[in-house]
Amino acid sequence: MSLDPQPLAPALAAAREAGWTTVVLDLGGVRSKAALMRCCARALDAPEWFGGNWDALADVLVDLSWLPPAPGRLIAVTSWRSYAAERPEDWDTLTEILGEAVDFWREAEGEPPLTVVLAAPERR
What is the CB-side half-sphere exposure of residue 73 using CA atoms within 13 A? Predict the structure, then answer.
């Protein structure tokens, strides 16, 4: 997982060109854990069994069976700085879960990787 903010457009373009499944997790306006879970469910198109809690999010990220087959998956987290500043404990938990999912897929033999990037703010 890239913890250094990265420009989003080149990462998305490269992933899409390579046939990867791309997910944009836009945290703009997210102010609570419940809102974060709803945002994750929508962005990931999570299955109905997603329970909207940390354990369920971790489970969803190591399943991914409902996503279309692809040689890789990219989750781009955007507009995250406000959430990270306002809810640092939740942000730490989210980044830990994302990192564990990246590690899980890295170690899953013969399975496509999962990459997570934190998008840098667009330059004006």
Answer: 24
